[in-house]
Design a protein that fits this description.
Blueprint lengths: L4 H6 L5 E3 L8 H9 L4 E4 L5 H14 L4 E6 L5 H10 L4 E5 L7 H6 L3 E6 L2 H10 L4 E4 L5 E2 L5 H11 L4 E4 L5 H9 L4 E4 L1 H4 L8 H9 L5 E4 L7 E4 L2 H11 L4 H8 L2 H6 L24 H18 L4
Parallel strand pairs: 1-9, 2-3, 3-4, 4-5, 5-6, 6-8, 8-9
Antiparallel strand pairs: 7-11, 10-11
Ligand TUI binds next to strand 5 and strand 7.
Length: 312
């Protein structure tokens, strides 16, 4: 089975992290991934500290294995969420959409491993100096808030620029992607979209069905002009965004259009006017199955790929 030094660093069996997706990655999904030998990650998004504490309590009821919490640095609750993470001595945090440097000393004191998601070499280097344990280099094939570089271009440049472990994310959904990431020098992968169609994932069924039907060109990036580009499945909302951006609509108008839309998709199942955030590999997701089977598919796929390449 595929194992790397990242497994020892995090106390997991396989070098697979499940993306900490807002409104998607609940304790139930994260527990299933951790139980299957990966690192399940609770996505805290814009949720408050109380919600995060409850989710940590939920995951601890069902698994004794390591887990993570993703902290969205643009959340209005970020300070209080970090306090909960410190109090609960969460094993691992990942961060997104910003720089967690100021929290690192206190997190290290309680033994929390800190793994920021980064879209560039410069930020990876800055955070390595600040003492992070690893980085997730996330390419723009990902869903949700994205950077500018592709995974293929970003990962090897980050690998060459830092000494800490690099985890690849963006456009990875099966064993071939895992092997490709390892070939680029990553010690593991973070996978989001594939786990949205896990049986344990609690998002609305409309979203799962839309992903199952998606083809390769069905995602679009909205909001480039606001400085916060978001990849999601094309629908009436992304069409409206496109038209407003073409007309050079004011940033406030564009931002107003996005408020509450992620929740509308994931919880209420509004696949027409909600933000159905997901990555470009949506076109490869063909079945809903338990997280353990998804993990097995990825791992056996990786072994088959290595065999086909003649790697022992
Ligand atoms: O964070 C994500 N994906 C997300 S966050 C999210 S909620 C949201 N919705 C609208 C706007 C913004 C967020 C939905 N999906 N992925 C990790 C990620 N982090 N991608 C890009 C970044 C990033 C961007 C800039 C990380 C650091 C950064 O640094 C800026 C700085 O402070 O230097």
């Amino acid at each position: 089975m595929v194992r790397t030094p990242l497994c020892d660093l995090l106390g997991i069996e396989y070098p697979i992290l499940q993306g900490g997706m807002a409104w998607v990655s609940t304790a139930k999904l994260a527990a299933a991934v951790s139980e299957a030998g990966g690192l399940g990650i609770i996505g805290s998004g814009h949720q408050d500290a109380h919600w995060v504490r409850e989710q940590i309590s939920e995951i601890r009821k069902v698994t004794a294995k390591p887990f993570g919490v993703n902290v969205m640095m643009m959340s209005p609750h970020v300070e209080q969420v970090m306090e909960v993470i410190l109090e609960e001595k969460v094993p691992v945090i990942t961060t997104g959409a910003g720089n967690p440097a100021k929290y690192i000393p206190r997190l290290k004191e309680v033994g929390t491993k800190v793994i920021p998601v980064i879209p560039s070499v410069a930020l990876a280097q800055r955070l390595e100096k600040a003492g992070v344990d690893a980085v997730v280099a996330e390419g723009m094939e990902s869903g949700g808030h994205i950077g500018e570089l592709t995974t293929m271009a970003l990962v090897p440049q980050v690998v060459d620029a830092v000494k800490i472990p690099v985890i690849a994310a963006g456009g990875i959904g099966d064993g071939r992607g895992l092997v490709a990431a390892l070939a680029l020098g990553a010690l593991g992968v973070q996978i989001g979209t594939r786990f949205m169609c896990a049986a344990e994932c609690e998002i609305h069924d409309n979203v799962k069905q839309m992903i199952l039907k998606a083809k390769d060109r069905d995602t679009a990036v909205s909001g480039r002009s606001t400085g916060h580009p978001v990849r999601a499945l094309k629908n009436k909302l992304t069409k409206e965004y496109e038209e407003l951006e073409k007309k050079c609509a004011p940033v406030e108008e564009l931002e107003k259009l996005g408020i509450g839309r992620l929740r509308a998709a994931m919880i209420d199942g509004d696949t027409e006017y909600g933000t159905v955030a997901c990555g470009q590999i949506a076109g490869m997701v063909k079945e809903i199955k338990p997280a353990k089977e998804i993990m097995n598919d990825i791992l056996t796929g990786a072994e088959e790929t290595l065999r086909a390449l003649g790697v022992k």
